[in-house]
Amino acid sequence: MSNKILEINDLTVDFDGFKALNQLNFDLDPGELRVIIGPNGAGKTTFLDVITGKVQPTLGSVVFQGQNLRQTPEYKIARLGIGRKFQTPRVYLNLTVRENLDLVANQRKSVFATLWGRPTLEEKRNVANLLETIGLEAKAEMRALFLSHGEKQRLEIGMLVIQSPDLLLVDEPVAGLTDEETENVGNLLMALAESHSIIVIEHDMEFVRQIARKVTVLHQGSVLCEGSMDEVQNDPRVIEVYLGAAPDDHP
Ligand code: ADP
Ligand code: MG
């Protein structure tokens, strides 16, 4: 039995004859923080869509903690422990930061318990710890409406983490953030990587350099190469793909 948290073999997604993913092979160790880069249209978002069950593969397999996810519906995959952070924050703007976290922390309880029960000591401790991890202790009682875009991103990462997924999938977390918030989100992901396996998709190379250990480069639906940031940036194939690519719509 393999000790990989995620193993992907010959994954192919065919959209009416166009292969968004083409015999892609990939694996991830438990506790790894992996960054995936690649030009637009390389298949990065489709790759996450297949792992979360949103898109069914045409061929190949996704094995998560030893379990083949073929035909497993999206909600079941989430329950197995795969959490996904979308690009735009999905937080409740009229609730405070703490209420947003409480709400997700309570999701597994019955409606009755959520409405009438008080949070247990353990739940309170979890939320308090998480507020510290995401750096929003001072803003815990503020409505999410008043948070900056970067703070909302951190809150949403917190809302994901409180569901204790084993694998976190994060799509372009720093798009549109200031340099300072980019660094904050980077530090948060690195702190979370101590207790989670994480895949981050990102365009911002400065950010990739801040957090990356191992980088995977996707191109035309397959893995072009993998290695440290330095190895990848100096790989002639990567240079060609990036220089040869149409101008990126991500500044
Ligand atoms: P990336 O996230 O790396 O920019 P995507 O995974 O979004 O790339 O897309 C990969 C390719 O697949 C693109 O050429 C895109 O146009 C195509 N594609 C994505 N989703 C669909 C779909 N539902 N139907 C047809 N083509 C799609
Ligand atoms: Mg994408």
What descriptive keywords fit this protein?
binds adenosine-5'-diphosphate; four-stranded antiparallel beta sheet; 10 helices; globular; Rossmann fold; 251 residues; alpha/beta; binds magnesium ion; six-stranded mixed beta sheet; 36% helix
Kindly describe this structure.
With 251 residues, the protein is an alpha/beta fold. It has a single domain, classed as P-loop containing nucleotide triphosphate hydrolases (Rossmann fold, 3-Layer(aba) Sandwich), CATH 3.40.50. Helix content is 36%, strand content 24%. It has ten helices and ten strands. Strands 6-7-8-3-9-10 form a six-stranded mixed sheet, sandwiched between helices. A four-stranded antiparallel sheet has the order 2-1-4-5, with helices on one face. Strand 7, helix 7 and strand 8 form a beta-alpha-beta unit. Helix 3 crosses helix 5. The radius of gyration is 19 Å and the shape is globular. It starts with 5 loop residues before the first strand and ends in a 7-residue tail after the last helix. The model has no long low-confidence stretch (mean pLDDT 89). The site of magnesium ion (MG) has 2 residues, from helix 1.
